[in-house]
Amino acid sequence: MNPDATFDGESFPAFLMAHADMQRVPDGRVEMFVQRGFLDPEMCAGLIDLIERQHRPSTVADSNGDSAFRTSSTCDLSFDEPLVAALTARFTQISGIDPQYGEPLQGQRYEVGQEFKAHTDYFEPGNPDFQKYCAIAGQRTWTFMVYLNDVAAGGATRFKAIDKIIQPETGKLVAWNNRRPDGRPNPATLHHAMKVRRGRKYVITRWYRERPWG
Ligand SMILES: O=C(O)CCC(=O)C(=O)O
Ligand SMILES: [Fe+2]
């Protein structure tokens, strides 16, 4: 596949695997990829500074009533920041997905004891808020997430349904398709950002949609 290609809202295993050092998680139930060293430590440090400058309590779509479900902080990253624009370009290069299909970048910051309990990134089609979140840009397709630091203890991302734990590491990318091969949401992508036990944890996520974000 042409390494400079861009696609409408879609990425492809063959395209991702054409990048050096990309690894596919060997499990037939998900399309999931890991690339160590996706970002260099200097860029990660600059992005952590941006998150530290401005963050708010994280929220959840379709709250289940558990006020401790997601206890982290979120940073809405402005494309006007040169580092954010540079990171957006990196996500385009690695995913091949036209940037119009991406949501604005979001940082997450976890202190000791903070977590995001088991959830999926797609919106449940039967839920009352489905239209609110998906009417314009459609369902989430791919998740591309980068860990910005090594966490002293805890803070791994656990994919319970496939028995896979990904440890945070400065600059490491994890990416997965939130859908099954027939396009329906894939429950095997269920994941839990486990509690940080020591230190802090920072990630940035690029979520892609079926249609342009607008
Ligand atoms: O912080 C993590 O490890 C995962 C975060 C996550 O799953 C999310 O923000 O949707
Ligand atoms: Fe998630």
Automatic annotation (TrEMBL):
Matching Gene3D superfamilies: q2cbj1_9rhob like domain
Xref: SMART domains: P4Hc
Cofactors (names): L-ascorbate
Molecular function GO terms recorded: dioxygenase activity; iron ion binding; L-ascorbic acid binding; oxidoreductase activity, acting on paired donors, with incorporation or reduction of molecular oxygen
UniProt cross-references to Pfam families, sorted A to Z: 2OG-FeII_Oxy_3
Segments forming domain Fe2OG dioxygenase: 101-210
Keyword tags: Dioxygenase, Iron, Metal-binding, Oxidoreductase, Vitamin C
UniProt-recorded name of the protein: Fe2OG dioxygenase domain-containing protein
Cited InterPro entries: Oxoglu/Fe-dep_dioxygenase_dom, P4HA-like, Pro_4_hyd_alph, Pro_4_hyd_alph_FE2OG_OXY
Lineage: Bacteria, Pseudomonadati, Pseudomonadota, Alphaproteobacteria, Sphingomonadales
